[in-house]
User: What shape does this take?
Amino acid sequence: MTQQIPIAAAAVAAGSNADGTLAAAADIAYLRLLLVNVVFVGVPGSSDWVLVDTGLHGRSGQIRSAAARRFGADTPPRCIVLTHGHFDHVGGRDLAEAWDVPVYAHPLERPYLDGSAHYPPPDPGVGGGAVSRLSALFPTAPVDLRPRLRDLPADGTLAGMPGWRWLHTPGHSVGHVSLWREADRSLIAGDAVVTTASESAYAEAVQAPEIHGPPRYLTHDWQAARQSAASIAALAPELLVTGHGRALRGGAMRDGLRLLADRFDEIALPPRGRYLDDPQRADDGTAYRPA
Assistant: This one.
C-alpha cells in the first residue's frame, strides 16, 4: 500500500506575484494551470528568461499574459525547455511559433515531439483516485514541434539559462529531464518527483504539500523512476519546483526526498499496474508506438 510523505507547511515556497504567478525564488516563478505547473526562469523585467514546459492545451493565453506582465509585452523567452512531452506539458505548442523561439528537449523524447511516435498507453488501473481512472482518456499522440525542436546540448548546459544544467531523470518518460542550478541548489524536477498526489483530483485541488513519486498513471519504467528519485534526493536541493503541486524548500523537503528514495517501492509504486513487470524503454523500442 502506497504512503504519503507530508511536509510541514512552513516548507512551502509561497507568495503570489502581481503577474499571477507563484514565487519560488527571485528569478523562479510558476503558474498553476489546472493540474500542472509551467515555470518562468528569469528576473522580472529582464529580456533573459526561459519558459519550462507549456501546460495543457488551451492555456497559452494565460501563459502569454503572465509572461507579458512579468517580462514585458514584447519580450519573448530565449527558448522553451521541455522536461518531457506528455500532453499536460506540451499543450502550449503554439507558443514557440508565436514567439519564434526554439524548443529544447532530450533526444530520447524527440519521437514524441516530431510527430513520429505515440507514448505507451496510460495505466488507469494504478489506483489513487479519479485522475488515474480518467487517464484512459488522456492523449498519447505526438505533437510536431518541427522546425523549432532542438536536442538539449550533450554537455548538459541549457541555452539561455547560465548556471543551470539538465539532468536525465527517466522513468516517467524515457527522455524526462530535470533542471539543476548548483549555485543555490534549485531544482526544477518536472514529473520525476511531485509534491501532490497527482492521481487524486481532490489532492490536486487542495495541494497539501507532500512528496510523491512520479504520476503513476503515465509512468512506464518504474526501475528507472526509482533511480531518478534516488539521484534527486542525492542532490539535496534547497528549492524543489515540480510539474504538479507546490514549490517546496528546506530541510523537511530534503528529508522527504530521502525517505522517498529509501522506501520508493513502498511509497511510490502502485499496488498493481501494467508497467510494473513490463517496463517500456527506449533501448528496446517498446517506449515508442508508431504514429
Notes: The two ends are 36 Å apart (CA to CA).
